[in-house]
Amino acid sequence: MKTLTRSLAVVGLSAALGLPCGAALAQGGPPRQVLPEGIRGGSEITPEKGVEIRRYVFKETGEELPYSVYVSSKVKKGQAAPLVIALRGYTGTTLTFVRGTAVDLAEAGGYILVGAIGYNNRAGFGMDAPSRPAGGRPGGPAPAEGGQPPQPPLVGGSKETDPQTVTRYSEQDVMNVLAMVRQAFTIDDRRIYLMGHSQGGGGARHIAEKYPNIWAGVALLAPALFGAAPTADSPITKIPLLLAVGDQDSLMGSVRTFSDQLDALKVKHDFVLKSGLDHGTIIMGAMPDVFAFFPKHVKGR
Q: SS3 for 104?
């Protein structure tokens, strides 16, 4: 059965949280996020000390795509290190997870933490998303006059515009980054983890299903599940899984439903409901839960 964890309530939350870097840039600066005590937000715009933004040429389009890397000082040359691949939400950046408390916990745990862009910051990591309502995504800004909220800058690839091809490229970028990191560092193949937020949470679910033998554990934070329903044959039911969502997030219901569906299949998993957190603050707010969950799960040799 699932494990239900509740945190202390956080007061004074803004209703417009959850906007990643791109949207914040479009509106003149990042929104203020009121995080739980002891949680550090960090920046999705400026890499902090020790975080490196690397680039590689995506051969299908000839474009340079970014990804972010943080290597704990505890990682020693020649010693196999655990790896976390992190997938940003809609309009996020490669720093959506590679910042703040996530970096602090990666440092303490001896992890290599990597953020992929997924071809660009609107693409779905292999998942085709349904049309967005005029009001934008949950937790986003009120629509501008004319119906749609202002579009943030595009980060990453832009040459390809066909939606299905972009979706495929998004998944491919993640796998490219994983392969490059495994080549650049000595990675413990028994401890490769995947996490994603919102659009990246839906993408992480898809990638976990498609490549189940890679991951020692998967964490989905306020995932955009788009009606996904696991079955007894779903590969993700064989992977240690954590679901986390804030009780101020409109996606809470769909995440609960997914958890209930796993319960009905008798799939053991962790369900973490964070009191007082919304669609944006869940990212850093859930990091202690995520980094407590991952080391409990190591694949057999």
A: helix
| Geometric angle at alpha carbon 106, from 24 and 154, rounded to 5° | 25
Please name which of 138, 73, 82, 64 lies closest in space to residue 108, comparing C-alpha atoms.
73
Distances (CA, A) of 8 to 46, 202, 253, 274, 298: 30, 27, 20, 8, 30
Q: Is 100 helix (H, G, I), strand (E, B) or coil?
A: helix
CB-based contacts of 112, cutoff 8 Å, min separation 6: 69, 70, 71, 72, 75, 81, 82, 83, 84, 106, 181, 185, 187
CB atoms inside a 10 Å sphere around CB 67:
26
Residue extents of the structural domains in the chain = 3-296
Average pLDDT of each block of 10 consecutive residues along the chain (301 residues)? 38 31 40 83 96 98 98 96 98 97 98 98 87 38 52 91 96 98 98 98 98 98 93 96 97 97 97 97 98 96 74
User: Which token pair is 112?
Assistant: 């290599």
Edge-to-edge, what's the strand order for the sheet holding 112-116? 3-6, 270-274, 241-246, 217-221, 187-197, 81-87, 112-116, 63-71, 51-58
Strand partners, 45: none
Q: Taking a C-beta distance cutoff of 8 angstroms, is the pair 67, 157 a contact?
A: no
Beta-carbon contacts of residue 66 (< 8 Å; ≥ 6 apart): 53, 54, 55, 94, 117, 155, 156
Q: Which CATH superfamily is domain 3-296 in?
A: Alpha/Beta hydrolase fold, catalytic domain (3.40.50.1820)
61: closest CA among 170, 150, 216? 170
Q: According to the model, what pLDDT value does residue 148 have?
A: 62
